[in-house]
Structure formats: C-alpha cells, structure tokens
Amino acid sequence: MKLTVLGGGGFRVPYVYQALLRDQGSPRIDDVWLYDTDPARLKAMAATLAQLADGHADAPRVTVTTSLDDALRGSDFVFAAIRVGGLAGRMCDERVALDLDVLGQETTGPGGLAYGLRTIPVMLDIAHRVRRLAPRAYVINFTNPAGMITEAMQSVLGDRVLGICDTPSGLGRRIATTLGLDPSRAQFDYVGLNHLGWMRRVLHDGEDILPRLLADERLRDLEEGVVFGTEWLRDLGVIPNEYLYYYYFNRDAVRSILDAPQTRGEFLARQQQEFYQRVTEAADGSAVSLWREAVANRSANYMAEAKGAVQGEAEADEDFRPDPAHHGYAGVALAVMAAISRNERATMILNVRNGTTVSALPHDAVVEVPVTVDANGVHPLTITQPDLHQAGLMQQVKAVERLTISAATTGSRAAAAKAFSLHPLVDSVTIGRKLLDGYIDRIPEVAAVFNSPRS
After folding, report:
1. CA distances for 96 relative to 32, 120, 144, 411, angstroms
2. Which of 154, 356, 374, 442 is the most buried (most CB within 10 A)?
3. DSSP letter (8 states) at residue 184
4. Whole-prediction pTM value?
5. Distance between terminal CA atoms of the chain?
6. How many CB atoms lie within 10 A of CB 427?
7. Three-class DSSP category at 239
8. Alpha-carbon gap, residue 236 to 214, rounded angstroms
9. CA atoms of 238 and 190, how far apart (whole Å)
10. Which tens digits make up the pLDDT trace of 54-110?
11. Percentage helix, strand, coil, to 5, in the chain?
12. What phi and psi, each to the nearest 5 degrees, are found at residue 196?
C-alpha cells in the first residue's frame, strides 16, 4: 500500500515512519512518498529515515518528491501535515495578535483563524487532486487548525477525510497511568472540537476512575493538574483539553506570552533552522540523534506559558525516547490505517462529521468525539450531550470556524471580520477588524485570499 505524507520534510515524519517500521500486519504500508516544497528539508528527512530503516530488511521504501500530483497518484492513504506560510507565517500569527494584547497562539484564537484562512484554499486544492488522482484514498489530516481544515476538505471528499490529534487520547492515557492502571483497558468519554474539549469519564474495567483521580493528591502530578490547578479541575468535575487553558486563563496566558523573550513560533524557527543545517552538514550518520535531541527540546518547551516556564529555556529530558507505536498522533494514524485496510476494528477519538452525535451542532460540522473505525469507515459513538457551558462555547467557536471557511472560499472580508470579531478570545469588533487588517498586511498568503479572482 502507498502512503503519501504531505509536509514530508517536517519534524513529524520520523514518528510516522517509526510506527510503520514496527507494524507487522498485512497488508501494510510498503511505499512511502514524502512531498514537500523544500528540497533541502526533504533531503534531510530522507537521511533521517534511511538511518531509522537501517537493520529493517522489510522497511517501507521511501520516495521524495516536490511534485504534488506524483506524490498523490494511486495513494491508499494521505497523511497531511503542512504549514502554509511556514514558520514565518506562524510568527506573524502570534505577533499580530500580541501587538493588540490578544492571545497569540497558532491554533487557538485569532492566530488559528489567520492560519485557517491561508490554509483552507491550499487544502481544498489538495482535496480536489486526491479525488482525481487517488479516489479511494483516505485523508488523515493533522494540518492545523485540524477541525476547521477537516470540515473544509469534507466538502470535497466527504467522510474519507478525518482529523487526528493526539491530545485527547494522550489525556486519557495519562489519567489511567497516574492512578497506576493499564490505559489499554480504558474507555474514554470525551466531547468537543479540536483543541477544545472535555474528558468527562474514563472507564476502566467498567468503573469510572475520573472521580477517584479528582479526589486524589496525585491529581497535581497530571499535566493538566499543572496547567489548570487542582482546584479548578475539581470545580469543573471533568478534565479539560489543555488548550482550554487559553480560554479559562486567557489574561494569564496573554501576559505570560507577552513577558516571554520569544514566542513558540520564534523558538521553533530558530531550532528548526539549526536542525536542518546540522543534518545537512553531518557526515557521520547522526541525523537520527540530532532529530531526537531536537524533538526532546521541543517537547520540553511545549505550552511553556501554561506551566510556569519560559519558552526556549526548559530543560530537555535526557531519557526522551519517541515511541510512536504506542503514543502520539503517529500511533493514532497507524491505528486508523490498520482499522480501514485490515478491518482491525478500533475505538479512538477523532475529528469527524457530527451527524446526530452532538445535537447542539449542525449535521455537517466536524466534532472531536469517540468513534469506532473499521473497513467500512468511521462511526461516531453515541455520547451524553455536553452541558450548557460546554455546548455554548462549542457553538460559538464552531460559528467562527464556519465563517472562516466561508471567508477562505469566497474571499469575503465581511465573513472574515465577523469571524475575528465574534471569537470569544477577541470579543471586540474594533479589535477584530484590526486583527484582520494586520494579518492581511503582514502575511502574503492571507492577503491572497482576498485578492484572488473568484470564478
């Protein structure tokens, strides 16, 4: 089977390839195509994967290309993880908002809307190419903002597009392991949108263990206990997705990011430049060790503003060992591919078409909920409906997402201005319009959305 990775020169690729190396099922992915617009990044990533494959006689063949059509043609699965505008665009996503004392973050708040505006046209073009060149392929989308992008692509490919994020499943695993339980025996009751959801129950051998954790002193050891504080988690009675920190503690988050010497995007831009340069110059087969070093440092600095750390100054874990066969989005992606291609029925949390799952949202909205996946596709599970504050926030953010999709596909400045102004982390028409103007002025790919002729 052929897997195409869009964004094939990116940091996520070795995670996926390691998962494929460990997969012994049949049929399996034996042909991996890496597509990227940057030949130098492709070369560096090919060197990294070649070293990972050393010693694996049946390692999937890797082909690198800058031709999108060649990469897509005949694919069985397409893994999409691209960044339109690169890290330069991400830094502008952050700084345009921060200059107006609004949250500057790549997926949550106005930065996520700017990211979506410039990404949706590109991903829709990819969707049309997939329909033409690989009509039987499933698209596994990790391109952010994942829920918004998945919803836009479904207008072309329907349910053959699904979005993945490792945050909800990772949260469920951490809850079980914090209590010393086997996470593979747990079932998760989760509801939300991408980067906006709540873990409401964790069933382990039929028992909901979440109340036990909320009453336990070990709650402070949970990553979300550090981010939100144990008092707020106990008040809520659920464990929120960590990205809800930006909603529940918005002023704290903005102040922390403003006080930091650099944003997350600025830190990653410097780190990635160093990594690719070092890999290009290395002649001693050290690409994998350089990648692991860089990933460890990235992980140590993840959401530093929510953990009382300074972006770029957290210490990397010397014992860090990526294990994508069991953790992270690579494991989720592999499980999806195995479930569809081999009918290895699996339950996981994905971004999928709502249908009747969440009654407060439209039928064709993309939501993040537990599903079962098998050879017949993706099937959302019946869930308890979200409570009022959860449903209300989901509705407002979903309305903003749909306005952003409309703006990106029609070039409507009015729809974009409404999206920015109605976002709950902006809550000002004046600021919303300034944000839109700022992104148009500073990010060429955003400006192009409103300047391109429409058929």
Report:
1. 38, 20, 18, 20
2. 154
3. G
4. 0.93
5. 37
6. 12
7. strand
8. 10
9. 10
10. 999 999 999 999 999 999 999 999 999 999 999 999 999 999 999 999 999 999 999
11. 55, 15, 30
12. -160, 90
